[in-house]
Amino acid sequence: MMKALLVIDVQNGIVNFGNFNEELNKIETIIKDFKKENLPVIFMKHFDQVEGSPLNKDSDGFNLHPSLEGYAEYVIEKETPSSFYKTELNSLLEKLNVDHLFIVGFNTEFCCMFTTIAAYDRGYRVTLIEDATGTVNNEDTYEMKGLDIRDFVGTVLHWSEVIEVLDFEEYIDEYQIEKG
């Protein structure tokens, strides 16, 4: 059985709304790690039909962010927060013999969280790399003073005791085959 990396919604329509250089650098390091081991790297692209939406298929926002698009060996489009709902992701993972899915990308509290739970429900071992996810939202979006969205989502998933939640450094210590 095999590991795969799922890179969720690293698209212009999300990434251009904030400074995500740190997250993008971590995601790129993890992608390179998977590529070095010849492990599959699968990109998800979110779209919606809403006219003028930054993720409308007719907009540049729908495109993968240029910093990472060159790594996209598999690209699957989705229309809901779950990367599994009405997509070919599950059948691709089965075909590739994947049993352990690593998850990075955007937005932490929507597509990353929904996909993490959906993967667990389908029998995958799941590792979310918390600080290799990002979100355009903040405490004001949810009217919750002091909310650290990434930390909150990571803590909830970790406390479930069925999802492995690591930060980037823990990922490096535990999984990176070749140091440096």
From TrEMBL:
Arranged from A to Z, the UniProt key words for this protein are:
Hydrolase
Q: Which Pfam families match?
A: Isochorismatase
- Using the record's annotation, list all stretches that form the Isochorismatase-like domain: 4-157
Q: Which GO terms describe its molecular function?
A: hydrolase activity
Q: Which family does it belong to?
A: Belongs to the isochorismatase family.
Name of protein: Nicotinamidase-related amidase
